[in-house]
Specification:
The strands form two sheets. The protein has a four-stranded antiparallel β-sheet. The chain has one domain. Helix 1 packs across helix 3 (133-145). By secondary structure, the protein is of the alpha+beta class. 30% of the residues lie in helices and 29% in strands.
């Protein structure tokens, strides 16, 4: 998984960053923990799928729907493909301070990391929908937690 980027701005009201209000103890840390948990689940899910002799049964036992509602709700989408995409992160790039250029840092060989992502591809006659396995697992996790 790509590093978890945040695009939000903290607003502080004269108390300094480490004030004593319990609610402010960085609620986004929970989001980062949840994203890390889902990434671990996704890696395990992908490993299980790759090793499964009967891939359809693995998906069914995991609760992956073979049909989903379309955006319009008029037709159901059918699961037709499971895509696995492997990438190797060989460096990082981020905005440079005070410049429109990127700061690029290539990784030494031992830091190059592999990531495999999975997507579930659903189609109807009018629509195609791609569901990232992490989104699916997050939905399942929330169902279990409630």
């Amino acid at each position: 998984m790509m590093p978890h980027d945040h695009a939000y701005d903290h607003h502080h009201h004269g108390q300094g960053h480490n004030h004593a209000q319990g609610d402010h103890l960085h609620s986004h840390l929970h989001e980062e923990d949840e994203a890390a948990d889902v990434q671990v689940l996704a890696a395990q899910f992908i490993d299980g799928f790759v090793q499964a002799k009967d891939k359809a049964s693995y998906l069914k036992l995991s609760g992956v729907p073979f049909e989903r509602a379309s955006r319009s709700g008029t037709k159901s989408l059918k699961l037709i493909d499971v895509e696995l995409k492997t990438e190797w992160q060989v460096g990082t790039a981020s905005p440079s301070f005070g410049s429109r250029e990127l700061s690029y840092l290539p990784f030494p060989g031992q830091m190059i990391s592999e990531r495999t992502n999975m997507s579930l591809v659903y189609v109807s006659i009018d629509e195609k929908s791609v569901l990232d396995i992490r989104e699916f697992l997050l939905m399942k996790k929330k169902e279990i937690d409630t």
